């Protein structure tokens, strides 16, 4: 399925691979002929073709090298797209729990109106564009103390309105356990409940452990500094960012809106 999706996004890659193969085969055949003529010329047979054969062999060799370069670049791009798609699929399966108002679309809200529970669990894929409730998901991962400080700052600064206005939902993840933050005062959770969803199912441990290793390799202190990953409305997983700077994220979206730039893909 991932390969089919990648092929749909790059429909001419197979054609390019066929062209590379055909041109490389032609260049290799021509090179073989030139080498044979060079050998014959050195042996005194058709010596008048020696210089021409040398030139042809150089051109053919350079052509093969260039084709290999283009093939390698295309192959690496294909591999990166497949990895990105696989990463997105892993995130799409993760479950979060939050308020109905935050996670449910209008149709889902009506169907769950009879439920006594005020919270629901939904996969992150349900927050993509066209799935009912479009949101930019910000996964904020750090040690327990850093996550506690983040939630306290969110409550004190009253970021709820700005986050909701810009369709941002925060998913705090405590490392190294890769779980929802535990032991946070209920008053703090209540103040930020309109803009946070908590990990509630799926392989959060595996996904976040991989992200933590990537962050460590980039020199990030994952417990004290933490890192953020943004899942865009179109489902694409953004690059990992050092630290957790929610105000900067809000400002970036608002700035693009102010100058009338498309914000659907950020």
UniProtKB/TrEMBL annotation:
The chain crosses the membrane at residues 17-42. Keywords: Membrane, Transmembrane, Transmembrane helix. Residues 110-127 have a biased composition (Low complexity). Residues 106-129 are annotated as: Disordered. This is Uncharacterized protein. It comes from Proboscia inermis.
